[in-house]
Design brief:
By secondary structure, the chain is mostly helical. It contains five helices and no strands. Helix 2 packs parallel to helix 4 and helix 3 crosses helix 4. The protein is elongated, with a radius of gyration of 21 Å.
Length: about 90
């Protein structure tokens, strides 16, 4: 049993690997070990479902996450700034 537990990923390992698996294809031996962990760990199953949901929602809306390289896409339009300002002003009065 000890040997088996050394082959299994921890939940901490899984959180990183599940994210990595969204971006690239992992080697077969890692995918098998991940599936074994997911088979017995309901929390990691839920985390995988949440990551998948987030990815699908972002893809559906045409949104991409970047490492901050393109600041132009992260700025608010003047109309959005005005709406926010009006909402803040209405709360003050």
């Amino acid at each position: 049993m000890r040997r088996l537990s050394r082959l299994m990923f921890t939940c901490q390992d899984m959180s990183r690997l599940l994210s990595d698996a969204m971006d690239r294809t992992l080697p077969l031996h890692m995918r098998v070990r991940m599936r074994a962990h997911l088979w017995i760990c309901a929390l990691c199953q839920r985390y995988e479902q949440q990551l998948t949901l987030l990815r699908d929602v972002l893809r559906k809306n045409g949104t991409t996450l970047s490492d901050g390289g393109d600041a132009e896409n992260t700025r608010l339009s003047p109309e959005a700034k005005a709406r926010i300002q009006r909402a803040l002003d209405s709360r003050r009065t």
